[in-house]
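Supplementary Methods S3. Complex input for the 2'-deoxycytidine-5'-monophosphate-bound model.
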Amino acid sequence: MKLITIAIDGHSSCGKSTMAKDLAKEIGYIYIDTGAMYRAVTLFALQNGLISEEGIDEEGLRERMSDIMITFQLNEETGRPDTYLNGVCVERDIRTMEVSKYVSPIATLGFVREAMVDLQRLMGEAKGVIMDGRDIGTVVFPDAELKVFVTASVDVRAQRRFDELTAKGEKCDFEEIKANVIERDRIDSTREISPLRQAEDAIVLDNSNLTIPEQKNWLLEQYYRVAGED
Ligand code: DC
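Predicted complex, serialized as structure tokens:
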């Protein structure tokens, strides 16, 4: 099998990361959750008083970008990588509703995107990587050998996020989550820099009616098809 780059893009909460993580584990590739990177920047901004009722202190954040170090470390227990912000594991803290509320506006900032894209290219330069996000197949790795664009209905996605947060013991409201999913779709798809869109050569997967094992098998088949080519 040849070593390839796999780009998985799509709407929020459509199970991209679950299928990407599972495939990475199965085929021994490095998995990079780029949404987690934008979430870590958002958490940093919240922790450092750069987000207030008046909005985001863009200049303040721009000045502090060099103080943000994002890394991933494999969690032996889950077999999946955890996100670290300046050496501290923030895997749980970046998934709260508060971070979800501000992450899309943070991800529209050009200087944030530039810094994250540079880091993503560095992390994936040796290939053998699966990266999930919004602009991987279009901007970060336009030459990726396998590109998948994942989507699912809004209700299905909101339900999945609701179940995820509830399982973690976080109190949440379905309608609030659904509104957040719709709002993030809107911001992600209409922003000026690198909006969420399907790459022309991406394969589309609507997983509204698929189980996790079904998705996993589908992706594995795509991988064998592409990586097995001469
Ligand atoms: O995948 P996620 O829901 O954890 O992503 C969080 C936010 O980050 C999402 O609203 C859009 C943004 N994002 C982005 O703009 N580009 C990426 N490559 C990944 C995520």
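The domain at 5-227 is CATH 3.40.50.300 (Rossmann fold). The chain is about 50% helix and 20% strand.
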